[in-house]
Amino acid sequence: QVQLVESGGGLVQPGDSLRLSCAASGSIFSIYKMGWYRQAPGKQRDMVAIITSGDNANYADAVKGRFSISKDNSKNTVYLQMNSLKPEDTAVYYCKWTVVVVVGIGRYSRDYWGQGTQVTVSS
C-alpha cells in the first residue's frame, strides 16, 4: 500500500506564494508520473500540473507561468510552487501518483491520491 501526505496549504492574499508538498511512503516499485489536481466548491476536479519520471512537466493553461511542479526522488516527494496566487486559485489541492506496485508475483499500475489540502486566496 502507498500513502500520500500533503502539506503546505493555507490562507494567503492575492499575489502571495505557497509551496505544497506531497510525500509518499510504502512499497513503490517504480513511478510513472506525479501530479497536482484541484477542486473548487461545486466544480469538478481538474489537473493543475503533472511531472513524469523523466521530468517532463505539463500545466493547465490557467497556471502556466505562475506554478511550477518539481520532485525530489530521494525524498519521494513532489512539490507545487504557486506564485502570484489569485482568488480563482482557491480550491482543495490533491496530489496523485501513478506508480507500479508489486503484489505477489505480479506488478500492477495503481493510482493513489492524497487527502487534499485547502488553499484559499483572499484579501
Provide a quick synopsis of the model.
With 123 residues, this protein is mainly β. It contains no helices and 11 strands.
How many strands, what sense, and barrel or not for the largest sheet?
7 strands, mixed
- Quaternary state of the chains: single chain
- Mean pLDDT metric: 95
Poorly predicted regions: none
Task: Please work out how many helical segments DSSP would assign.
Answer: 0
**Structural class by sheet pairing and helices:** mainly beta
Give the fraction of residues assigned to helices.
under 10%
The N- to C-terminal Cα distance equals 41 Å
Portion of residues in beta strands equals: over 45%
Count of beta strands: 11
3D shape: elongated
Radius of gyration: 15 Å
Order of helices and strands: EEEEEEEEEEE
Brief descriptors of the model:
7-stranded mixed β-sheet, single chain, 123 residues, 4-stranded antiparallel β-sheet, mainly beta
